[in-house]
């Protein structure tokens, strides 16, 4: 039978064990851009293989949602395919968060069609006219007599922001556009819909049923993005609260290392070195 002293000592021992377990549990949460998602997921898998004591959770949801989670102190790393907006930065500062950007790769935004479409090249001006509803049939562009089905990312997407700035020059997407929550759903919708047009990061071009087309006569490839020839390109980021420390710093450094950049390239993106 325990006396009071033994009971106290037992409880203290249990508390120390619990505290020690919690103290050494290395966890990292990553959330945001579906464009950066393949890099983050694969990098996390490799990092955990080499560091089995570490647990890394990776989720998509869009750049806006990732940055919002960082602002709310609900994630360690926010993946973003665009830079943070001034209003987001102000919200972060108000919450005591200091977002720091880490550029992790470059990416092109490829324009994709259903694989059965005969059109193979569009200009930026033609893409703008399609997405704003001024061109509505492929026959106007030398293609089949088929209605154009416009597929776009939703407004929480960094890809949506960058595509809107570069390809649409700030113009509004037609109200008839099918708004999708991720690169994957854009690719699958275009694959399943004859007459569809969409746009995705380079890492999603291996989806069946789609084809990437030239923009202004240039194919979307790692080489043309790196050289600056391909006109719809952007840097990809991971944001942290302040300069990263501990596991967060180790993971960011891994992504920026030669092995991490090799992973980015294997996922279809343009490495920084």
From TrEMBL:
GO terms for biological process: phosphate ion transport. It is a lipid-anchor. Residues 1-25 form the signal peptide. GO terms for molecular function: phosphate ion binding. InterPro entries: PBP_domain, Phos-bd, Phosphate_ABC_transporter. Pfam families: PBP_like_2 (PF12849). It is found in: Cell membrane. Its main location: membrane. The complex is composed of two ATP-binding proteins (PstB), two transmembrane proteins (PstC and PstA) and a solute-binding protein (PstS). Part of the ABC transporter complex PstSACB involved in phosphate import. Involved in the system for phosphate transport across the cytoplasmic membrane. This is Phosphate-binding protein.
């Amino acid at each position: 039978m325990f006396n009071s002293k033994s009971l106290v000592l037992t409880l203290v021992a249990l508390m120390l064990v619990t505290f020690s377990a919690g103290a050494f549990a290395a966890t990292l949460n990553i959330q945001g851009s579906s464009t950066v998602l393949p890099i983050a997921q694969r990098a996390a898998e490799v990092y955990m293989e080499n560091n089995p004591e570490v647990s890394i959770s990776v989720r998509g949801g869009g750049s806006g949602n990732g940055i919002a989670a960082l602002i709310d102190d609900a994630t360690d790393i926010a993946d973003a395919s665009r830079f943070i907006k001034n209003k987001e930065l102000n919200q972060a500062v108000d919450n005591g968060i200091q977002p720091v950007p880490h550029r992790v790769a470059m990416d092109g935004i490829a324009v994709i069609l259903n694989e059965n479409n005969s059109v193979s090249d569009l200009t930026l001006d033609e893409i703008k006219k399609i997405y704003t509803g001024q061109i509505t049939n492929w026959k106007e562009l030398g293609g089949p007599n088929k209605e154009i089905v416009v597929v776009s990312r939703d407004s929480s997407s960094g890809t949506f922001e960058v595509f809107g700035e570069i390809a649409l020059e700030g113009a509004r997407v037609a109200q008839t556009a099918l708004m999708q929550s991720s690169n994957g759903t854009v690719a699958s919708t275009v694959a399943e819909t004859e007459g569809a047009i969409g746009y995705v990061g380079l890492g999603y071009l291996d989806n069946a049923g789609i084809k990437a087309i030239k923009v202004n006569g240039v194919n979307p490839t790692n080489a043309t993005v790196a050289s600056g020839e391909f006109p719809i390109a952007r840097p990809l980021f991971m944001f942290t609260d302040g300069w990263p420390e501990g596991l967060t710093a180790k993971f960011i450094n891994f992504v920026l290392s030669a092995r991490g950049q090799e992973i980015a390239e294997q996922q279809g993106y343009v490495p920084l070195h």
